[in-house]
Design goal:
Blueprint (H helix, E strand, L loop, with lengths): L5 H10 L4 H5 L5 E2 L6 E7 L2 E7 L5 E5 L5 H9 L9 H9 L2 E2 L3 H10 L2 H6 L22 E7 L12 E7 L5 E6 L4 H15 L4 E4 L3 H4 L1 H9 L3 E4 L9 H17 L11 H10 L9 H6 L6 H10 L10 H31 L18
Parallel strand pairs: 4-5, 6-9, 9-10
Antiparallel strand pairs: 1-2, 2-3, 3-4, 6-7, 7-8
Helix pairs in contact: 3-4, 4-5
C-alpha cells in the first residue's frame, strides 16, 4: 500500500478530470438518487469530501482521485481483513469511508475480475427449497444457531480439522472456533468459551449431531438453563442462518489460504472481522454495529485517516451520559434492523413455499 500525504491527495483531487463535476457542486446539497437523504460536496482543509445526511446512515466520505481508487478497492476486497467478499458487501465497505463517481460500477468490475474469486466461485446455483416462518429475535444472543464445519483438508499445522460456528439471530454476529476433534466435551468447552464473551443465550438451535444431542450436552444445557432446539432430520436449511455463514466462511478461507492451505486456522480471526464489519442485506447494518452500537474502526477508516491526517475526536462525556447515548443508539439501530428483517423475511417467503412434517415438539416448525 503506497503512502499518500494530504498534500498529494489535494493535488490529485484538483488534477483529476473525473472530479470536476464534484468540485462544481461544492456547497450545493442534492437529494440522493433512488434513496432517502441528501448529499453535499464540501471542502475541509482544502480536501474534497462528500457528506451524506438525512437518512439512517449518515456518512462523511473522502472523495478519491482516479489514481488512488485501485488501492481502496484492493484493501476493501483482497486484504486479509476483507476476505474476498461479494460485490454488495465490498461496495458497502468502500462507501463507508470513500466515494467517487461510478464507485459501484468500479467495485463490481474489480470483484468480477478478481482472479482468486473466479477460480474459487461456486460452479452452479443451488435450487431453492421450502422455507417457513422463523420468529424475529430482537435481543442480541437470545437465540443462537450453532453448527460444525469439517473435516477440513488439509489438517492445519496446529492439528485442527474442524470449525465450530455460531451466529446470533438478532445481530447476525458470528463466532468461529477451530477444533482438533468434535468430541462432545471439546464442543461443550468451546461453546462455554464463546458464552463467556457474549453471554449465555436462552435458546440454541443445532442439527441432530451426536455432539449436540448427547447426555453431556443435555447436562450442560440444564446447568446453563439453555433450551436446546434441533432441526428437522436431513434438512440442513432449517438451520439456514449458520449454514449460510458456513458457506461464506469456507469461501473466504479457500480464497485467502490458496498459497498456504495448512495455515487456514490462522485466518479465522481476521476473516471474522471482515464479516462482522460488512453490512448484512437482511438487516441493513453490520453485525458489529448492531451489537456494540458504533461503527468499528477498520481498514477503510484507517486508510482515510492516513490520507487526510484527520482523526475523529468525540467530545468528552460522563460515563452516565455515554451509557444513555449508547442505549438510545442501540434501540434506534435495532428497531431499524427489525424492520429490515421483516421486509426481508416477507420477500423470501413470498417466493418459496412448501411443507415439512415435525417429529417432536422441540423441533423448528416449517409451514
Amino acid at each position: 500500500m503506497d503512502d499518500v500525504t494530504p498534500e498529494q491527495l489535494r493535488q490529485a483531487q484538483k488534477e483529476d478530470s473525473t472530479l470536476k463535476n464534484c468540485f462544481k457542486h461544492v456547497g450545493n446539497p442534492r437529494p440522493l438518487k433512488g434513496k432517502e437523504g441528501i448529499s453535499e460536496f464540501i471542502l475541509r482543509n482544502d480536501i474534497l469530501y462528500r457528506k451524506v445526511s438525512g437518512n439512517d446512515k449518515p456518512s462523511d466520505q473522502l472523495v478519491v482521485p482516479e489514481k488512488f481508487r485501485n488501492q481502496v478497492m484492493k484493501l476493501a476486497h483482497d486484504s486479509i481483513m476483507a476476505g474476498h467478499l461479494g460485490i454488495a458487501k465490498t461496495t458497502d465497505k468502500v462507501q463507508s469511508q470513500f466515494y467517487w463517481p461510478g464507485v459501484g460500477s468500479d467495485v463490481m468490475r474489480y470483484c468480477k475480475s478478481c482472479d482468486i474469486c473466479q477460480r474459487t466461485c461456486d460452479k452452479g446455483r443451488v435450487t431453492k427449497v421450502p422455507l417457513g416462518h422463523m420468529p424475529l429475535i430482537d435481543t442480541p444472543f437470545k437465540r443462537v444457531a450453532v453448527d460444525i464445519v469439517g473435516p477440513i483438508s488439509p489438517t492445519s499445522k496446529h492439528g485442527n480439522r474442524y470449525i465450530l460456528t455460531l451466529v446470533d439471530y438478532a445481530t447476525r454476529f458470528p463466532e468461529a472456533v477451530p477444533l482438533r476433534n468434535i468430541d462432545t466435551e471439546r464442543v461443550a468447552e468451546a461453546l462455554v468459551d464463546i458464552f463467556s464473551r457474549v453471554g449465555v443465550p436462552s435458546e440454541i438451535l443445532t442439527d441432530r449431531g451426536s455432539q449436540f444431542t448427547s447426555d453431556v450436552m443435555k447436562e450442560v444445557s440444564r446447568l446453563l438453563s439453555l433450551r436446546q432446539l434441533t432441526t428437522t432430520p436431513y434438512h440442513p436449511i432449517c438451520n439456514g442462518l449458520v449454514e449460510k455463514f458456513n458457506g461464506t466462511l469456507k469461501r473466504m478461507l479457500k480464497r485467502m489460504c490458496e498459497e498456504r492451505p495448512s495455515d487456514w486456522d490462522r485466518y479465522i480471526g481476521p476473516l471474522l472481522f471482515a464479516y462482522r464489519e460488512a453490512p448484512q442485506a437482511s438487516t441493513g447494518f453490520a453485525p458489529f454495529e448492531l451489537l456494540y452500537g458504533r461503527t468499528v474502526r477498520g481498514p477503510m477508516a484507517i486508510l482515510k485517516e492516513m490520507w487526510t491526517s484527520e482523526v475523529d475526536n468525540p467530545e468528552t462525556r460522563s460515563t452516565y451520559q455515554y451509557v444513555l447515548d449508547l442505549r438510545e443508539r442501540l434501540e434506534e439501530t435495532c428497531a431499524l434492523a427489525r424492520s429490515e428483517l421483516q421486509e426481508s423475511s416477507r420477500g423470501t417467503r413470498s417466493t418459496i413455499t412448501g411443507r415439512l412434517k415435525v417429529a417432536s415438539s422441540n423441533q423448528v416448525i416449517w409451514c
